[in-house]
């Protein structure tokens, strides 16, 4: 009964390709997030959706487009992949109205060849 | 903007040694503070939290006290185990939003 699940766990692809990462949470949370962790383990917020609406959009290239079909899902689509996109991408969720911490998925390791 | 600074690793200790990982923050208002742990090949897990000044978060033998006067949230454990080897992240969540701002992470290596 995984709380926040991401697929795939590993993604290896070539420069220029388009790929998607999916995230689902079964915690009943109303807010979901995408974080990027670089090779030095530094974590940075990318996007946040609350009830399917974008509420946080940090400085991220337009090639990255999040999509939230419902509040339990937040997918990340990346166009024209570049070498610098290689990282681990973490999905997280929380209940915005409560003071509870965010729950994280296990991450998707994206490697660009 | 908000920021979190952690001591750089790696921190290498022998089993049963005392652990301190320093964390200081800059934020407006009164943020909530967290420690997350990332074991090798896994995602982030919440280790402990504190939501107001002088709160002490504790879990699995780890402790951290929210010190507003020094804007710090140092992580401590009295006796580390090999299984504690992981990367530890200090994070804050400001009252202005729900996003987490992370420190750079500190890798802990515990040798038997």
Molecular structure report:
The complex is a heterodimer of chains A (113) and B (112). In chain A, 0% of the residues lie in helices and 56% in strands. Chain A is an all-beta fold and 113 residues long. With 112 residues, chain B is an all-beta fold. Chain B has strands spanning 3-6, 11-14, 19-21, 23-26, 32-38, 44-50, 56-59, 62-65, 75-77, 86-93, 100-102, 106-111. In chain B, a hairpin with a 2-residue loop joins β7 (56-59) and β8 (62-65).
Q: Largest sheet of chain A, if any?
A: 7 strands, mixed
List the total number of helices of chain A.
0
Radius of gyration of chain A: 13 Å
What overall form of chain A do the CA principal axes indicate?
globular
Largest sheet of chain B: 6 strands, mixed
Secondary structure: elements and pairs:
The complex is a heterodimer of chains A (113) and B (112).
Chain A lengths: L3 E4 L2 E4 L5 E7 L5 E7 L5 E8 L2 E5 L6 E7 L2 E6 L8 E8 L8 E2 L3 E5 L1
Parallel strand pairs in A: 2-11
Antiparallel strand pairs in A: 1-3, 3-8, 4-5, 4-9, 5-6, 7-8, 9-10, 9-11
Chain B lengths: L2 E4 L4 E4 L4 E3 L1 E4 L5 E7 L5 E7 L5 E4 L2 E4 L9 E3 L8 E8 L6 E3 L3 E6 L1
Parallel strand pairs in B: 2-12
Antiparallel strand pairs in B: 1-4, 3-9, 5-6, 5-10, 7-8, 8-9, 10-11, 10-12
Give a short summary of the structure.
Chain A is mostly beta strands. Chain A is built from no helices and eleven strands. In chain A, strands 2, 4, 5, 6, 9, 10 and 11 form a seven-stranded mixed beta sheet that branches. In chain A, strands 1-3-8-7 form a four-stranded antiparallel beta sheet, with no helix packed on it.
List keywords for this structure.
heterodimer; A: 7-stranded mixed beta sheet; 4-stranded antiparallel beta sheet; 11 strands; globular; B: 112 residues; mainly beta; 6-stranded mixed beta sheet; 12 strands; 0% helix
């Amino acid at each position: 009964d995984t709380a926040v699940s991401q697929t795939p766990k590993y993604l290896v692809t070539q420069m220029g390709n388009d790929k998607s990462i999916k995230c689902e949470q079964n915690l009943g949370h109303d807010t979901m997030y995408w974080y990027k962790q670089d090779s030095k383990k530094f974590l940075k917020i990318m996007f946040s959706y609350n009830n399917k609406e974008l509420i946080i959009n940090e400085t991220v290239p337009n090639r990255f487009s999040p999509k939230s079909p419902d509040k339990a899902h937040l997918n990340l689509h990346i166009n024209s992949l570049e070498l610098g996109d290689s990282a681990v991408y973490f999905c997280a969720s929380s209940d915005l109205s409560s003071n509870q911490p965010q729950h994280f998925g296990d991450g998707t390791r994206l490697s660009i060849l | 903007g908000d920021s979190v600074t952690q001591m750089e690793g790696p921190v290498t200790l022998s089993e049963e040694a005392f652990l301190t990982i320093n964390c200081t923050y800059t934020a407006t208002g009164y943020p909530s503070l967290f420690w997350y742990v990332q074991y090798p090949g896994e995602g982030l897990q919440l280790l402990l939290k504190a939501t107001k000044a002088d709160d002490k978060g504790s879990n699995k033998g780890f402790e951290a006290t929210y010190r507003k006067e020094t804007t710090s949230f140092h992580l401590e454990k009295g006796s580390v185990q090999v299984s504690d080897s992981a990367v530890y992240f200090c994070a804050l969540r400001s009252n202005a939003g729900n996003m987490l701002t992370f420190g750079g992470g500190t890798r802990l290596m515990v040798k038997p």
